[in-house]
């Protein structure tokens, strides 16, 4: 027996009336938090109590740097991450991308956390700007160190950590509108700035704008310009600053919080298992 199930929330996506009755929207699906850390030491530390951050001495150096950065100011940082967009060939000029973030930092008081997703050209550009390596090096960021740029206002992080742990500690999330990042930010109740690149990312970016938790999506050249010339960098900086200002407005922050409360009672994995037990196992 076929039982089609979707891992998104019916509170976010309207399920059309023409769907057959055996098609289910279960709620968003998330892996267990402890599975999502990039090192065994931190996986064990967080598995003991996922709601309370472990002591710094329990963490590896990389995750300890991240937690220190999160706790280093009364103002939570802004998350930036493009997941696999770089490795898929869309981040053609990592230095221009970093230059946009630098201009925004210089013009504001924002702090940023950049997840590099281990994309080698981006890691190399970061290390070059930090003065840690030759720009032609093929090595990635170190396995134990995070890298700080721009007067320590930008933390570049090459590891893996659960978004549903990180995002509630951030002011907003800037990302590519992938379904996983979207779901985690919705559950965290934070505003989002979206820059879609392909496939369903355009749907999610438009949908989040429609439900009021994000401003209009950014064109890709307003986050990741193709060239380093001042005109393109300044235009992208201005567009990103406007998007951040709109995303952090009281109206969008309140709506993001409201949506998170609606989603808090959902258990997408649990609902999917219940459907399988009822429709498949019991037959």
Automatic annotation (TrEMBL):
Domain spans labelled Erythromycin biosynthesis protein CIII-like C-terminal: 160-229
Protein name, UniProt field: Erythromycin biosynthesis protein CIII-like C-terminal domain-containing protein
Annotated Gene3D superfamilies: Glycogen Phosphorylase B
Organism: Rhynchospora tenuis
Phylogenetic lineage: Eukaryota, Viridiplantae, Streptophyta, Embryophyta, Tracheophyta
InterPro entries linked: EryCIII-like_C, Glycosyltransferase_28
GO molecular function: glycosyltransferase activity
């Amino acid at each position: 027996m076929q039982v089609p199930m979707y891992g998104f929330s019916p509170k976010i996506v309207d399920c059309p009336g023409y769907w057959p009755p055996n098609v289910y929207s279960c709620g968003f699906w998330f892996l267990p938090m402890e599975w999502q850390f990039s090192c065994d030491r931190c996986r064990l530390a967080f598995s003991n109590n996922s709601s309370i951050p472990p002591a710094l001495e329990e963490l590896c150096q990389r995750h300890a740097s991240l937690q220190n950065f999160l706790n280093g100011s009364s103002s939570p940082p802004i998350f930036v991450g493009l997941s696999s967009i770089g490795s898929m060939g869309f981040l053609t000029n990592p230095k221009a991308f970093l230059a946009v973030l630098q201009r925004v930092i210089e013009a504001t008081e924002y702090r940023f956390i950049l997840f590099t997703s281990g994309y080698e050209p981006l890691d190399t550009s970061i290390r070059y700007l930090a003065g840690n390596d030759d720009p032609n090096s093929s090595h990635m960021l170190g396995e134990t160190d995070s890298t700080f740029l721009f007067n320590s206002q930008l933390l570049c992080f090459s590891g893996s950590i659960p978004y549903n742990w990180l995002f509630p500690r951030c002011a907003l999330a800037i990302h590519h509108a992938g379904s996983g990042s979207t779901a985690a930010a919705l559950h965290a109740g934070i505003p989002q700035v979206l820059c879609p690149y392909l496939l369903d990312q355009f749907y999610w970016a438009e949908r989040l704008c429609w439900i009021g938790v994000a401003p209009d999506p950014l064109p890709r050249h307003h986050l990741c310009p193709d060239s380093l010339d001042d005109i393109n960098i300044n235009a992208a900086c201005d567009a990103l600053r406007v998007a951040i200002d709109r995303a952090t407005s009281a109206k969008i922050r309140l709506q993001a919080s409201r949506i998170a409360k609606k989603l808090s009672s959902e258990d997408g994995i649990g609902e999917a298992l219940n459907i399988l037990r009822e429709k498949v196992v019991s037959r």
